[in-house]
Specification:
There is one protein chain. The protein has one domain (2-182): Arp2/3 complex 21 kDa subunit ARPC3, CATH 1.10.1760. Helix content is 71%, strand content 0%. It has eight helices and no strands. It has helices spanning 2-31, 44-72, 87-91, 96-111, 118-144, 150-154, 159-171, 173-177. α2 (44-72) packs across α7, α4 runs antiparallel to α5 (118-144) and α5 (118-144) runs antiparallel to α7. The chain is globular.
Length: 183
């Protein structure tokens, strides 16, 4: 019985450590800005897909939840923090829908089964990523008003960069899945 308790506590500590590393990776990815047209891109959505694929849906969702909790608690983990504010005030700003979409995208990326069909895998990852923008637009529209050009403001500038990141994740899928052996 003691062996089972030790095993469970060791496994739990391992999962906590992995989730913490994943949330740190996500925070770092939010701070890296790459010049891109028409707006600079961060690598957050690529890391969200990576976390989902590499960690699986349960640990992936837990990791992204930890990242969100860290940001809500006031740690400067989100893109634009601390310059544009921190904590719950920043979280409930224009990007809240996108941040919540991270959770759904990571969950779906971890839940899907991938094979050797690049096109099918690309569409699965595109579908997962689309929830980031779906929730982003819902929140943005309710925050600034539906009469504004929500799609033009909240999605269109990011489409080219997003397709690029989804393509990277698709092409690196086999390598990313290898991380699951260590988890």
């Amino acid at each position: 019985m003691q062996y089972v308790k030790n095993f469970i506590s060791t496994k739990l500590l391992k999962y906590i450590f992995i989730a913490l590393l994943g949330s740190i990776l996500l925070a770092i990815s939010s701070k890296i800005k790459i010049p891109f047209y028409p707006v600079p891109m961060t690598m957050q959505t690529l890391i969200v897909l990576f976390i989902g694929i590499a960690f699986g849906w349960k640990l992936g969702a837990a990791t992204i939840s930890l990242y969100l909790i860290e940001g809500i608690a006031g740690l400067p983990v989100f893109s634009g923090t601390p310059e544009k504010g921190i904590g719950l005030i920043y979280f409930t700003g224009p990007t809240m829908g996108y941040l919540i979409g991270f959770l759904v995208a990571g969950y779906l990326a971890g839940k899907f089964h991938y094979d050797n069909n690049l096109l099918k895998n690309f569409f699965k990852l595109t579908f997962a990523t689309s929830f980031i923008y779906f929730f982003g637009i819902l929140w943005l529209g309710s925050l600034i008003g539906w009469e504004k050009p929500i799609f033009k403001l909240g999605v269109q500038p990011f489409l080219l960069a997003e397709l690029f990141k989804i393509l990277i994740a698709t092409l690196a899928l086999k390598q990313i899945k290898k991380f699951r052996k260590f988890i």
